[in-house]
Amino acid sequence: MPASVTIKEIARQLGVSKSTVSRALRDSSEISQETKDRVLELARQLNYSPNPIALSLLNNRTHTLGIIVPEIANPFFSTAIGGVEDIAYSRGYHVMIYQSHESYERELIDVQHIATRRADGLIVSVSSQSEKHDHFVELQEKGIPIVFFDRVSDAVQTHKVIVDDYKGAYDATEHLIKEGSRRIAHIAGPPNLSISRNRLQGYRDALQKHGLPFRDEWVVASEYSQSEGTERAYQLMALRERPDAIFAASDRIAMGVHWALRQLGYRMPEDIALMGFSDLSISALLDPPLSSVAQPSFEMGQQAAELLLELIESKSTPASFETRVLKTNLVIRRSSMKNIS
To answer: Which of 198, 200, 202, 203 is closest to 181 using CA atoms?
Structure first.
């Protein structure tokens, strides 16, 4: 097998220095176009292939992206990761995946590891326990750009990819109202997350528009988990005046509610209607199938990756950062359809 062609060999044949060849291959403005053309033409003739390790040291790049999500087992995040990988691999980047498991301490450790491994950039959806985001600011100051998706931080100035959580929640609540529900409860997510606050506000405003009461006892907070959804459902159904519909801030919460209502002997939607948020694939398989607010998780991952690669490959900081807001849409199934002709 012939030895690999090196920069030294290209320099020898052209009668120039190794640094000149190196700069020409990097498209440096210090080298004339004529010299660049000569170097690139000879490199092509000799089938020159740069050493990836040397190239990463030369460019201070590893061609690796980090992504931190609360939990890979959540189909929303696993699908978003697929979107990130779709773009990253098409552009020659690898992806390192981390889970925070909704833990602030675990998120800190993940960020430190990404800094140590010198990833070129980070895509992140913050954990529900993270109230401070200094660790992301510090990572940016080390020269590692960040893009947030879904669960974002207002404390960090960078690109963000979200869905219109407010409108999704508004539409979901309005659907329940139009189906005849009047005592609509909401199981909200952790209040420190913007997605939870926006969904709660959409629920509240839809009630107000239709002249229905907002009652504190009908709004309970929960982690985004099935087990907590079950607990909150038992709590709501034990009230003296029980709700006739529940809008859950996520499908994982809604699945816990669904199980609890079945255990308690309530019929959906005849006794109580149920609506989730995320439209996980399993939601259509429940009995009755769960109505939900669909959000384009794969596209969110793709757009987050595109924005991050722009930051990595750009030679200057953007004049302003962008927040992309993607649309949601209602997916109506049996769990909320009271008015069936």
So the answer is: 203
Strand 292-294, strand 121-124: pairing = unpaired
Distance CA 310, CA 4 (A): 32
Q: How many domains does the chain have?
A: 3
Is the same domain home to 172 and 227? yes
Question: Smallest Cα–Cα separation from 173: which of 78, 274, 287?
Answer: 274
More confident residue, 294 or 18: 294
What average pLDDT does the segment 159-172 reach? 98
Question: What 3-state DSSP class applies to 201?
Answer: helix
Question: Are residues 239 and 91 both part of a single domain?
Answer: no
Q: Report whether 319 contacts 155 (CB < 8 A).
A: no
Residues 6+ apart with CB under 8 A from 242: 183, 236, 272
Q: What is the CATH number of the domain that holds 147?
A: 3.40.50.2300
Q: Which residue has the tokens 């009047």?
A: 182
Query: What pLDDT, on a 0 to 100 scale, did the predictor assign at position 29?
Result: 74
Give dist(CA 137, CA 20) in Å, integer: 37
Structural tokens at position 53: 């390790």
Total-model pTM: 0.80
CA distance 102 to 88: 25
C-alpha–C-alpha distance, residues 10 and 21, integer Å: 7
Q: By mean pLDDT, which of 110-114, 163-167, 283-287, 316-320 is the weakest?
A: 316-320
Q: Which domain holds residue 237?
A: 165-295+330-336
Residue type for position 235:
Q
Cβ-based neighbours of 247, under 8 Å, separated by 6 or more:
169, 172, 173, 176, 184, 185, 186, 187, 203, 275, 277
